[in-house]
Amino acid sequence: MSDSPYYDDLENRDPDAREAAVFASLPGQIAHAKAKAPYFAEILADVDPDSLTGREALAALPVTRKSALIERQKSDPPFGGLAAVGPSDFVRIFASPGPIYEPQGRRPDYWRFARSLYAAGVRPGELLHNCFAYHFTPAGAMVESAAEALGCPVFPGGVGNTEAQIRAVADLKPAVFVGTPSFLQSILDKGEEMGADLTSLSKGLVGGEALLPSLRDEFAGRGVAVLQNYATAELGLIAYESPAREGMILDEGVIVEIVTPGTGDPVADGAVGEVVVTVLTPEYPLIRFATGDLSAVMAGISPCGRSNTRIKGWMGRADQTTKVKGMFVHPEQIAEVVARFPAITKGRLVVEAENGGDVMTLHYEAAAEVDGLSEALQAVCRLKGRVAHATTGSLADDGKVIDDCRPVG
Q1: Cα 401 to Cα 334: distance, rounded to the nearest angstrom
Q2: Between the CA atoms of 346, 362, 262 and 319, what dihedral angle is there, to the nearest 10 degrees?
Q3: Fewer CB in 10 Å around end: N or C, the chain?
């Protein structure tokens, strides 16, 4: 492994072979989820697992939204019926804000995080300075288990205590920083003030925040080559950067779809939409889990030779719920309105302030004007709104179903 640019042979296999292998394993995962996880037994009751041999069949399954986990877990603690094993079968249980409880299985590198470390240049034996949180949320444990799988020692720095972290870097001389880009910047800036020798840090893997190109360049100028990855507490690794730095490559253990926010309907290739993930994890078999994040698929294969699909990385939040005249309007409602009119190919609700009040306008793409749209908008949203016809392809491709243009403050 250490002599190869790839973590394993899965990364550069033929894309068609990968797709066939993934969908050969999916029916068994669905059957397992139905048999062992009460929530999936309920929502997939009428689904024949053997029919799920392609993306079109997968797209017909219901979406489970992250925002629904809080209520599910309240009504059926601790995991809302989504886990296929009991709490005693996990090694750790974490809590993200909400709270949302997330389990860690006992398998090595449970979150499949080692792949992203390896792509960032981390090799066996190198010391990692891990500055993701170790309490409540699982980010620190994700790194820890991945480093163990790679054969790397870890300094468990966690979050905060910047001066103590700097002293540890100066004394222990780790090669790798893992954490948020803003905290790496804080350590380097403060270390410079203190006159500390932090030159051992040559590699970085960051996440949890956007990595601005200017900040990446700043890190490079200070001798730290930084890549980023995309992971969540529930799903583990979703995608990661390679040295090619052209998009993020999907992990080998997930199936990713990009859908219109508020629906489960896949968007056209290259269009911006919500990231929906199915994981091939037996302990916590999340099926079509909507992350609430926006991204888009990139065409072609990475120049680094990794052949899995690439996405553009995090492009904002898909949960565009807003309040108009004191009432909440959700993306799901706009999707429902649009779905009533087959002639409409795309819709976008724009909310503006006008004469001291709220005004909403549903802009829609169609070959010709559509009758009855304003009435449907009022019936679904319980609010009056305008409609505006737009030519096909004229609305922005940014994943927004609701665009709140009112001034802040």
Answers
A1: 7
A2: 120
A3: C
